[in-house]
UniProtKB/TrEMBL annotation:
The keyword tRNA processing does not apply. Its EC number is 2.3.1.30. NCBIfam families: cysE (TIGR01172), EPS_EpsC (NF041874). The lineage of its organism: Bacteria, Bacillati, Actinomycetota, Actinomycetes, Micrococcales. PROSITE patterns: HEXAPEP_TRANSFERASES. This is Serine acetyltransferase. It catalyses: L-serine + acetyl-CoA = O-acetyl-L-serine + CoA. Keywords: Acyltransferase, Amino-acid biosynthesis, Cysteine biosynthesis, Repeat, Transferase. Belongs to the transferase hexapeptide repeat family.
Length: 194
């Protein structure tokens, strides 16, 4: 995918996920979550080469300073990823995030081990993670699932589930809430699932 195609996809994703977004220019200039994603892409490319890993960490820390979002350069992030509001989001080194994932402010995709192993979550395609949620350890959040605001999740979550509470309790999504977000008119607030 070309640079301009990816930029267009990012701007469209932001506008589709945020009903407050008015213009591409406004989104490009003012959306810290989008800036964090762009800086992560640069740091992730640098991370792929041993000789530029120090530079990758520096770029990620500059991104943290500028946006309030900390994404380790080793994290693997899919297409059409969106961070709404951004501030306080932390994504660890071995996190894997699928396509069409949305995180709200204060989300942590963190580790539970100090060993140099896969220690951060794998988040499937089409997952929404509500504000303040903590998803911890080498666990999997199944595709099409939603994590409620302030939930603490330390166990695998099946596809098409909703997880809420501390500790997170899982239940299946009802059929009327399984449709993916396709445009602002069909936006569903994650708080509806709590």
């Amino acid at each position: 995918m070309s640079f301009l195609s990816r930029l267009r996809e990012d701007l469209d994703t932001a506008r589709n996920h945020d009903p407050a977004a008015r213009t591409d220019l406004e989104v490009a200039l003012n959306y810290s979550g989008l800036h964090a994603i762009w800086l992560h892409r640069l740091s992730h490319r640098l991370w792929d080469h041993d000789r530029t890993r120090g530079a990758a960490r520096t770029v990620s820390q500059v991104g943290r300073f500028l946006t309030g979002v900390e994404i380790h350069p080793g994290a693997q992030i899919g297409k059409r990823f969106f961070i709404d509001h951004g501030m306080g989001v932390v994504i660890g080194e071995t996190a894997e995030i699928g396509d069409d994932v949305m995180l709200y402010q204060g989300v942590t995709l963190g580790g539970t081990s100090l060993a140099k192993v896969k220690r951060h979550p794998t988040v499937g395609n089409g997952v929404t993670v509500g504000a303040g949620a903590k998803v911890l350890g080498d666990i999997e959040i199944g595709a099409g699932s939603a994590v409620g605001a302030n939930a603490v999740v330390v166990k695998d979550v099946p596809d098409d589930s909703v997880v809420t509470g501390i500790p997170g309790k899982v239940r299946p999504r009802t059929p009327d809430k399984q449709e993916p977000l396709v445009d602002p008119a069909s936006y569903i607030d994650p708080a509806m699932w709590i």
